[in-house]
Amino acid sequence: MAERQSVAASSPAARQRHIQHIRRGLETISAGAFDVPDAVGNLRWTEDLLLSTWEQAATGRPPVSGREFRVGRSGGGFDRIHFRFLRPAPVGPPAVAAGDLAIPLNRRSSGPRIEIPLPVYGAGFSFGSVSLQVMLSRARAAERLGSYTSTGEGGYPLPLAKHRERVITQVATGLFGVHEETIQWAPILEIKYAQGAKPGLGGHLLGNKVTMDVANMRGSVPWVSLFSPFPFHSVYSVEDHRKHVDWLRTVNPRALVSVKVSTPTDVEMVAVGIYHAGAHIIHLDGSYGGTGAAPEIAKKNIAMPIEYAIPKVHRQLLEEGIRDEVVLMASGGVRTAWDVAKAIALGADGCVIGTAELVAMGCTQCKNCELGRGCPFGLTTTDPELSQLIEPDWAAERVVNLYESWKRQWRELLWRLELGNIRQLRGRADLMFHEEYERK
Amino acid sequence: MSATARGQPKDFHRYHIGTAEAPPLAGAPGRFSVKISTVAFLRMAASLVADSRSLGDLAANFGSRPCIYGVYDGTFGGLEARESLCRGCLRCMVEHPDVARIEADPRYKRLGDGYWRPEQVLTIWNEAATGKIPVRGMGYGGPFKGPGFDNIWTDMSEIVRPTRDGIHGREYISTAVDLGSEPMPLGPEVAPLEPSEPIVTLPLPIVFRALPRRVIGSPALEAMAEAAGTAGTLIFLGVGDCDEWLGRRAPELVPLVNGQNWSSRAWPSGIRVMEWDVTREALLPPLEATYLLPKVLWSFRVRMEPGFEDRVVELARRGATCIRLEADLHGSEWGAARPRHLTELLRSVHRRLVAGALRDRVTLIAGGGIAAAEHVPKAILCGADLVSIDAAALVALQTEWQGEWRDPGQDGPAVPRLPAGWAAQRLLNLLCAWRDQLLEILGAMGLRDVRRLRGEVGRAMFADELEREVFEPLFGRKRGSGG
Hints:
The complex is a heterodimer.
Chain A: H1 12-30, H2 47-59, E1 81-83, E2 103-104, E3 115-116, E4 120-122, H3 132-145, E5 149-150, E6 167-172, H4 180-185, E7 188-192, E8 204-205, H5 212-218, E9 226-227, H6 238-251, E10 256-261, H7 267-276, E11 281-285, E12 294-295, H8 296-301, H9 306-319, E13 327-331, H10 337-346, E14 350-353, H11 355-360, H12 392-416, E15 432-434, E16 437-438
Chain B: E1 32-36, H1 38-51, H2 55-63, H3 91-95, E2 100-104, H4 106-109, H5 118-130, E3 135-136, E4 152-154, E5 177-179, E6 200-202, E7 206-209, H6 213-216, H7 218-231, E8 235-238, H8 239-242, E9 253-257, E10 273-277, H9 287-292, E11 297-303, H10 308-317, E12 322-326, H11 342-355, E13 363-367, H12 375-382, E14 386-389, H13 391-396, E15 400-401, E16 413-414, H14 422-445, E17 460-462, H15 463-470, H16 472-475, E18 477-478
Parallel strand pairs in B: 7-8, 7-14, 8-9, 9-10, 10-11, 11-12, 12-13, 13-14
Antiparallel strand pairs in B: 1-2, 4-17, 5-6, 15-16
């Protein structure tokens, strides 16, 4: 039998019905009374984390459903690290000023002074791995929040240019869609050496996602799988890396330069090299991060989780006396406001968030992004019909709501830790404990 | 070997394992179970009818269903849900939480045992069905770390990559390994060595270790032998289990003999490797065996039990060049009060051999508990040259078992009826998928030869060591670590 279409092209009414059902369903299921079956979630994104993220995306407030919204059940890393609070939870909203969640993105003495009012910005999702609607949703959310989102490596779709002040241009190994003008539009340029979900393997966009539009954007052939090579063919050494940074700064001297790397054994040496090449932001992407498609063996096994990499790099930068000249952003398995706070307490300045934004838009973590037409919820797909399930204004609202909820949680955390702002939390691992460890 | 004008040997061919679809046998459990409330479904259908203003509307509403994988493609949609097509996306449940409910299939949850997790079993089934590397979206969703192999992450390089784009076919990464010792110009006593034993080169670092015929049956054994022959690797098995096809399959068979069943009969000339079952009474085969089979490489089977390292060192000192180490089917040490995992056992014996300047004179084959593609590079990182797979091959053949199965001599599994050709293809697919995943790991590290990986713990990250280095300064001493 021919495959039926979940969203009939000929019927806008049927599509609208699906959209309404999905929106209503996300709220019904996350409301708390729903008996959640065991097929929902996994050890890292548990059913509680998924549903509480949906709840926050709907309400803009910390969950009241009673679900565990702070940690998962992976049995390690952030899930076993907790804060040692100095004050009990406040009854009302804590008195921490809004501006105190801000972090600078440039700690060097030169270059534009860019600050974001919350300690996160959006991770790169390429056009191809996600739809244009999702990219627009994230850009609109970034604009409202005063933060940033990244193009990923699939080029810069023109409708995104309207939000260019909030869009980071990623320059990855495939150089897909990287042009002088898209470099010049960007307030921040992100050189991607590696990605935590598939470290050392380059990118991979399966053929069924390479639609005409995607192929046009990338200058490739429709319906043919695309591999971003690994590594950059122009970078074989730290010296080459410096020339790479210089190239981008020559094309756009007004932009900050971020360098995204994965987490190998000697990640701290890599970080120091990035600093000396002139980058403003070191972006560490840990091994448990998200992706549109990656070999399972790579996601689980290659490179170290971010929880180890942050303290290693933070310590090394301190020892080298350069910690206050460079911004350290962390990603890869950062799921909640609490994960962000823990990453900062381990030594990061802030975090780069990808998957949680998709979850806010309705991702169920079913991991079928690469299969057939792509995401059944219209997120990680380029299918022209499925992608219509996401309306950018609705999705942007969900992302903004999620971060509004996170802001409340960070303010409460700071208050309970007796800190005046989030910058003071950086490197304060002494305010945390690990379930498996005991201090003398 | 002669060479062409371009410097490549004339008979050079890139190693390749032929894969073909070999779908699971009927009745295999899927991951998900689809539950539909008939009452709620009929109520939903009625509301669709009520909402439709025309026949066209009605057709569009009924034709547009909330599953893109075809679970509800039948005429009666949810009333005849095609559960096997469910991918667990939950779209139907999100759209209609009162009608549809997606649960984990209880049969799926029962797969495996305390060591073999259901997802490992299902992964092998998929690899055996397609021969492809499992690729999925989103991040890793499993435990942060775990015992044994789950205590290890492998390294990667940000920019240094000698192989460049090798994993995508543009440059060759070698997965070949040698059984036996390379001739060494000087012995440890700085004296010329005797001419070395034969060397057998395999194109991939995986061999089969067949469990006894009385446990797994003849068809499974024959499928393994056929797959080993096609892939150019070996199958280690009891001499009594291969007598009847020893003649026609000699190059891939490695008969295991011991002091009781060794005989100086006429062995087929094609045999490349024989295996001696090492016991306290008979460490080495009788001298007549080596005279009778001068071109045969002798492998020595050693159970990994307390003190096995001494036995391995002694064997190496007495000239053994290939030793096959066996842990139990869960990768644990035999007969120990606190059994060590294969990873620790390998690191221990590797260190002992290095300390005795013996490591390069002996090949170590490690087996027991190799349950996933990632275990191959991790075992090699810990000190093995190559691995043997046992229960994994049976899992590929859709064997299921009840309860814990640790001892290969136990009657554990129920091997299904194997269609001709299907079983060998499943095993070939598995070998191909595992080799390709090994290439991914090697490629990420920038290695172009699996032989370089042996014992390279600098290219591994052990959770315990990372935590000691990173977490102890931050959080204090690990509970229960003593001192």
